[in-house]
Design brief:
The structure is a single chain. The chain is mainly alpha-helical. The chain is built from ten helices and no strands. α3 runs antiparallel to α5, α6 crosses α10 and α8 crosses α10. The chain is globular. The relative contact order is 0.15.
C-alpha cells in the first residue's frame, strides 16, 4: 500500500494520502484532497513497448504489483487500446551513452533513496519502490533516459524527483536499467 513507506503518519493523514493515491476523488468528491493524475499517454507509442502495454492494460497488478490502476478494460478491448496508444508519438531522440557508469550514477544521483541498490538486494525493506523490468517497459534506452531527465513530464502526480542528470548520465543509467545498447 502507498502508506507503508510513511509509518510516521497519523491515521487520518494516512487515509487522506490513500484517497489521493488511489484516485478515489476522481469519482468521489472531497474538496480538500486533490485527485492523483495518471501517467501522460500522449506519446506512449514512442516510449513504451506494445507487449508491456498489452500486459499492463489486461492486468495492471501483474505488471506492477501495488499499482493504483484498476483492471478496467474488457479482454476484447485491450488490443484496440494498445494499437491506438502505439500510434501516439515517435521514438525519443536522445544522445548515445554507455552503461558501465550507469550503476555508479544510479547510486550517486540518489536513486537508492527510493529504489534498491543495483548491486545488492533490499529484501524485506518495505520502503523500496520496485523498478520492475525496465527492459520490458521502455521502447529503448533513449525513451527511459528522457523520462529520467524529467519524470514529472510523464507522471505529473508521481513522486520521482527531477535529479538534474545530464543527458549522458540519464542515458548511462537507462542503458544499465534496460540492459539494451544505446542507439
Amino acid at each position: 500500500a502507498a502508506v507503508e513507506r510513511f509509518d510516521s503518519l497519523d491515521p487520518a493523514d494516512a487515509g487522506r494520502l490513500l484517497l489521493a493515491e488511489l484516485a478515489c476523488t476522481a469519482c468521489h468528491a472531497e474538496a480538500s484532497i486533490p485527485s492523483k493524475k495518471g501517467p501522460v499517454l500522449a506519446d506512449a507509442g514512442g516510449r513504451l513497448q506494445a507487449a508491456w502495454l498489452t500486459a499492463g492494460i489486461a492486468d495492471p497488478q501483474a505488471v506492477k504489483p501495488g499499482t493504483t490502476m484498476p483492471r478496467t478494460a474488457a479482454k476484447e478491448d485491450v488490443e484496440p487500446l494498445v494499437h491506438y496508444l502505439m500510434s501516439l508519438g515517435k521514438p525519443a531522440a536522445f544522445g548515445s551513452g554507455a552503461g558501465p557508469k550507469g550503476n555508479e550514477i544510479f547510486h550517486q544521483a540518489g536513486c537508492v533513496a527510493c529504489h534498491a541498490p543495483l548491486d545488492g538486494d533490499a529484501k524485506g525493506d518495505k520502503g523500496v519502490v520496485p523498478l520492475g523490468k525496465p527492459g520490458e517497459k521502455w521502447r529503448d534506452p533513449a525513451a527511459l533516459a528522457a523520462f529520467l531527465q524529467d519524470p514529472l513530464k510523464w507522471r505529473p502526480s508521481g513522486r520521482m524527483p527531477k535529479l538534474n542528470l545530464t543527458p549522458q548520465e540519464a542515458m548511462a543509467v537507462a542503458v544499465r536499467l534496460t540492459g539494451q545498447a544505446a542507439i
